[in-house]
Each structure stands twice: as structure tokens, then as C-alpha cells.
Amino acid sequence: MMKTRLLPLLCFAILIYASCKQGSTKIEPYSGWPAYAGSKDGIRYSSNQEITAANVGQLKQVWIYSTHDKDTANRSQNQCNPIMVDGILYGTSPKLKLFALNAATGEQKWLFDPAKDDTTNNGDPMAYYKVSRGVIYWQNNDGGEKRIFYSVGAKTWAIDAESGTPVRSFGNNGYLDLTKDLGRDTKSFVAGTTPGVVYKDVLIVGDRVSESADAAPGHVRAYDTRTGKLRWIFHTIPQPGEPGYETWQDTAAYKKFGGANSWSGMSLDEKRGIVYIPTGSIGGDFYGGFRKGKNLYSNSLLALDAGTGKLKWHFQVIHHDLWDRDLPANPNLVTIVKDGKKIDAVAQITKHGYIFMFDRTNGKPIFQIEEKSVPTKALPGEEVWPTQPIPTLPQPFARQMFNPEDVTDRTPEVHAEMLAKYNQVKNRIMFTPPSKEGGWIFPGFDGGGEWGGAAVDPETKILYVNCSEMPWAQVMIDVPKANANDNSPQALGHVIYNTNCIGCHGAELKGNGTSYPSLVNIGKKYNADQVNGIITNGRNMMPSFKQISPSDKKNLLAFLLKIPEAKAVKEIAKEPVNNRVTSTATEKKMVDEIPYAMNGYNRFLDKYGYPGIKPPWGTLNAVDLTSGKLLWKVPLGEYAELSKKGIPVTGTENYGGPLVTKGGLVFIAATKDEKIRAFDKRTGKVVWEAQLPAAGYATPATYAIDGKQYIVIACGGGKIGSKSGDSYVCFGL
After folding, report:
1. Domains of the chain (ranges plus CATH)?
2. Tens digit of pLDDT for each residue in 98-114?
3. Among 24, 361, 374, 577, whose Cα sits 20 to 30 Å from the Cα of 154?
4. pLDDT digit string (tens) for 467-477?
5. First CA to last CA across the chain, in angstroms?
6. Are 597 and 656 in contact (CB under 8 A)?
7. pTM for this one?
């Protein structure tokens, strides 16, 4: 009888034990890839260790997925770092289609095509070749609502994560219009590129704006994840009564200027509710005569209350930027021990090869930062800030000076040719103001560090960052003015070109490589409708120029296509006459009367297409964040034809970022040679590599399903002369 009574009690106890054991099952931190950069703290780290240095040589392709929407002219890209949640991989395609795949098999679950839900691009088939670096996942507390947020140009969509359909109750019938909620009307280019973050039920977003003086404001905004209602806004160009307003000489700056935007991502300390946001430069990159002062909060690392948008602290990395030194990637949150004290830190990489580190609770530098005097002789009207901050540690991960002895000596002929070109550019000291004599930007306009960001091992406190070491020439010219005696469409169009296009395509329309293509004889490639579509909608990394008025656009077409009068273009006819929005007459002066422009983005390349500097041309670097020491630097990427000639591995320019694993490896693609590699994280030795169908100019993701670890990379190519691709490749043991 006693045994009979004990049996139910025993069963109950077993159930309680099993329930407690199940409830206490601990999910290994960093075992998935649920956010851009792997986690909201932005460290691109995985605790998975099935793949190790001992077995990585056995990696093979598990699946490949293609969306079949690359640009056959090899201009499209795909920079997406996909995310994985509950066994589903979410990512985007070259034409910004959003997909959900079985993360283990690559089988498509659903596909959302924004072109089928959008009529704002007038049917332009090229309008969706834009850039997306990732997506954001959110679910409510009980998991009943699951959404993917991602941007397609100026629209940030809310997509049901299970069905792949727009959430019509969100925002404007399923999306946010990023040109709204900026405090002033703007027709200038605005687009989402790198995803923001979600804190509780708050979606925090940044955006990309144009580089010109009529750029839209780059304010940081936060929206309700359920409704799309604006929750808060942080003005990156301060308004009256806000901290930082007093740093502008022009008290109406907030009404006129744009930029200071967060295009490169952000990181979140979820426990403290603090979001860390890097910003870019003020619009009008290379001449600041109209924007005197430090220009807060441009080129700054911001620490904001994620729930309210209130500023906690900031640090400006570049004062009064004249060199396009945007902060290029989301910062890394890491805990270090210094002088026996544990410090929760934030590390920010830069284009010029420095790492700035702060106590993330109060903004106090971890290592001393010195304000160094810099050259101040500048173009008339410019007022250069006399100092720039330089950290004493960590050691820089890029060379800081391009001297005559650094000019390539690959062959005597090439050396002589490139030395002569080198000597045509007079200034080589970092932070020399832009001039007509020219100056070397080194590392180049694309870094140094770039949008791929850095990876950090939270156990060893070692940061891994890839770097391009390519000099670019910055040469300023007078912006040609209109000929008062020539009012022909071509002459007026030439003026519009000089105002809006000369910085990328050059005074002679020759461009510079595939990133900035030649416009010479563009009429042989495109008709007036097509050229107008590119100007209006943008393409790939080229922003749209919707702010150009219909009459100005008509004249610009006449100039580009070499026709006496631009023929009627149906898209122009539909546009409102007052398309250009200006706040004041002074703003119009800034846009139309900037006295100087940069004569193109000019990489220092020899006639064979190789960098004109001695190698390495691209590197992977390991930096100890505790000591600040550079542990190792190795070439990243290879020109096979040079290696066959016995030239040591040179590295290549690289776009994309690394990830680091507990298994002892750093995985990275990013190189022009279209390979993905694994490096031993202790030594920097290459321990595995595989050929990709197109260059992986993106950051890989890694995750485990049923104990099996996978590595996935987007293969979009399309930059620096690479062919375009539209596939994702997955590797596993």
C-alpha cells in the first residue's frame, strides 16, 4: 500500500526534476548569428568550435543559393552579412530581394521582392541595384510577432519573418520613409545601408546621405517596432538649446547643413540600455568654408540612451573633417582588465588606421589620446581646425605616411613612372588641408578600416581587422563657373555637372575605375531615358540626385549626351517644377557656389592596375586591446600572376570583414582574388582557402545546427573590377 502511494510522488518528483533541468539548460553565448555583426555588441565572434585549425582543411561546400539577379554589366554588389535565427537564414540579394532559407540546407522558405510592391521608381529596372549590408530581427515577448526590418533605398520595410509578407500595420503600409521625420523637408538622397539595432521595442536606425553640400540631415531616429511611430530623434547637427550647438559659428547651421549621419552601423549594450553610434562627415566633404567650427556631432562616437535618445557622452575623432574620414564601422563592445581593474570598453576602428578605446559607461579614454597640431595652410575661405586627436595606443594597424621610398619598385620601369606621378602631388603629411597642389590620403578614402568592421575575441581581448593600404590623391580645382554669354543647354548642363558630378567622375568625365566609371561617350551605352533614370534613382553606391530640378536635369542630359537640347524624357515631365528644396538663399549659395571641388577619387595605380605603393596592399591584423600592441600583420589576398613570378604575396584591396571563433580561427573573404580564407588566430597563418563564384565583399556568418557548424558568405563582387555575383555559399565539415 505504501509503495502504491509513493509511486505518484516519485513520478511527480521526476517530472519536477526534468522540468528544472530543462529550464536550466543554458544556451552558449555567441553560438548563433542573430544580428548584424553576429551580436548586438558588434564583435563578430562565435563560440562554436566544431571547426578548428586541426580540421579546417576538410571544409567543403554544403550548399549554394542564388537569386539570379546580378547586373550583367558587373556593376551590382551584395555586401550583406546574413543573420540566422531558429534555423532560418535571412539575407538580401543584389536587387535587394529579402529571402529566408533553411540554414542547414539552403532551401528557400520565402522571397520578398520590393520591386513588386513599389511604384515609386517609375518602372526603372535598375533602380533596385542598391546596397544592403544586413537585416534586423525582432520578436515580441511571447514570440507571437516576428519581424525582419531591412532597408531598400529610402524605405525601411517590416516583413513578417514567417510568411515573408509586409506588415501592413507598420508605418506607411509596411515601411518607414527615411526622408521623413528629419525636421525639414528634403529631396536629397537618403537610404538605409547598414542595419541599426533593436532595443526592447525600439528600432534605432541610421542612414546614408549624399556627400554634397545639399545633403540631407543625418539625424539618428528610433521607431516603435510594432507601429512604426517615431519614438525619439537625436539631432547630429545640434539645434538651439541642445549640447554642441555652441560649437558652430553659424547659429543657423542646423537649418542648412546635412550629413553627420550614421551609415556604418551601431552597437548596443543591452544590459545598460546604451547604443553606441559612429557618425560621418558634414555634407560638402572637402571644403568647409561655409561650416566653420568643429562641426559636432560629425565624425564622432555617440553614446545614447537607447530608450530615449538622450546623449550620455561623445568623442569627436576628426574635427572639421576635410578628408572624408567618416567612422567606417560599428564599434566593438568588449571587457578588458587594465591596471587590475575590469573595464567595460568600446573600441572604434577608423579609416586612418587608429583604434580609439573608451570606458563605455562614461567615455573616458582607456589609453591617452593627444591633440596633435596639424598643418593649417588652406584654400582661401577655409578655416582648418588646428589639432586632431591621436591615440597613443593601441598601435595603428595601417601605415601612416606615404613617402618617396614607399613607391613601388616592382620593376624599374614601373618605379620610374609611379615616382614621377608621386612627385606631382606635393603634400604627404596626414591631415594636410585640401589644396590645388594636392595631398596623399593614406590610408585611402576607403580606409584603412572600412564598413566590414573588426572582430573581437572576448576571451583573449584580441581584435582582428582587415585593412587596405592604398594611397589616393586629393587634388582640388576651381569649380568652373557658367559662361554668361553661353546659355545653351550644354553649357548650363556643364555647370550642373561641375556642381554635382565632378568629385566622382572628374573634370574630364574620365572617372576612375569601375567604382567611378567614365562618362565619356555615355550616349553610346545609354539613351536619355536610361541616363535620367540613373541620375534620378541612383545605382549601387551612386546616390540618387532627385534634388536636381527638372530644368537642370534636362540641361545635364544635354551636356552628358552631347545633344543641343535634351529630348523629352517622360520621367522629367512627371516631376514637380519646384523639385529642389532650399531652406534659405544661403543654402542655395552653398550648393551652387562652392568655389572648389576635388578632381575625382584617384587611386594611385600603375598602368597595369596594381597599386603604386610597395606591398602589402591589403592586410589582416591582430591587436591586443589590453596592452594596445599590434601582435601580427599578414598579407590578405593575392595576385596569382605576381606570385607565379616569385613576388611574395602582396595582399589586395579588400571590402568586407572578419569573424573570429572559439575554435581558433579567423574567417574572412573580402579580397579581389575571389577567395575565402581561414587564418590561425594565434599566428596569422593561412590554414584553409576556397575559391568563390564571385568576390565575397561582405562579412561571413557562422552558426551551428544540431552540432554542425556552418560558414556562409555572400558572393556579390562588383567592386574594383571584379565580376558581379548573386549567390551565397555555405561551407561545413
Report:
1. 13-105+456-468+616-733 (2.40.128.630), 134-327 (2.40.128.630), 476-603 (1.10.760.10)
2. 999 999 999 999 999 99
3. 577
4. 999 999 999 99
5. 57
6. no
7. 0.90
